[in-house]
Design brief:
With 182 residues, the chain is of the alpha+beta class. The protein has helices at residues 2-12, 14-30, 121-131, 143-149, 153-164, and strands at residues 37-40, 46-59, 62-64, 72-82, 85-102, 105-118, 137-142, 170-173. Strands 1, 2, 3, 4, 5, 6, 7 and 8 form an 8-stranded antiparallel sheet that branches. The longest helix has 17 residues, at 14-30. The relative contact order is 0.14. InterPro entries: PaRep2b.
Length: 182
């Protein structure tokens, strides 16, 4: 964005830059991030570009057009270019179930999570650019990182749609009711 502002300022002056900023302000407020997304190393050098973000709904291990419930997963595929070659980083989001017993009642909670294996520093840098979380090896992602992925236009709708299909919190209790017999 800064590069665009600099070019615009040199060619057309401050008024043009101000109009550009005014036009992009709603998108900035929304926090939407455009692609391609440059990914930088610790020294500030571009090492890779995220060029595309795709999603699939997955049920029973197979991509489907739409699904809902516990067994519905959201697979996010980040395509990136490194050295002129396109590669992919995949993360599959699912609902994990946790049951809590409170006295006589049992509450079931669902939380969003993804587990993936990050093979190298390039994949770790891509994951950090997308979610703010990076390390090599096994990585657990939670709802905060899924919220970070919503910043990208191609994923916002998919994440919201997947979340709408979540099961609601369930609570069951054991009640003994004494009924008088006739």
């Amino acid at each position: 964005m800064r590069e665009l502002e600099d070019v615009l300022k040199r060619r057309h002056g401050d008024d043009a830059v101000n109009k550009l900023i005014e036009a992009f302000t709603p998108a900035r407020e929304e926090g939407m991030v455009e692609l391609p997304l440059p990914v930088y190393d610790d020294k500030g050098n571009i090492i890779v570009r995220v060029v595309d973000l795709k999603y699939e709904f997955v049920k029973g291990g197979q991509p489907v057009s739409q699904c809902a419930g516990e067994d519905c997963r959201l697979r996010i595929i980040a395509e990136y270019e490194v050295g002129g070659e396109r590669k992919q980083l995949k993360m599959e989001w699912y609902l994990a179930k946790k049951r809590e017993k409170r006295g006589e009642a049992t509450a079931t909670h669902y939380f969003e999570t993804a587990w993936l294996t990050v093979k190298n520093d390039i994949e770790a840098a891509v994951l950090k650019a997308l979610t703010g979380r990076a390390k090599r090896g096994s990585v657990d992602l939670l709802a905060d990182q899924l919220d970070d992925l919503r910043r990208f236009k191609p994923l916002k709708y998919a994440v919201d749609r997947w979340r709408r299909g979540k099961p609601i919190r369930q609570q069951s209790s054991l009640l003994s009711i004494n009924c008088p017999s006739d």
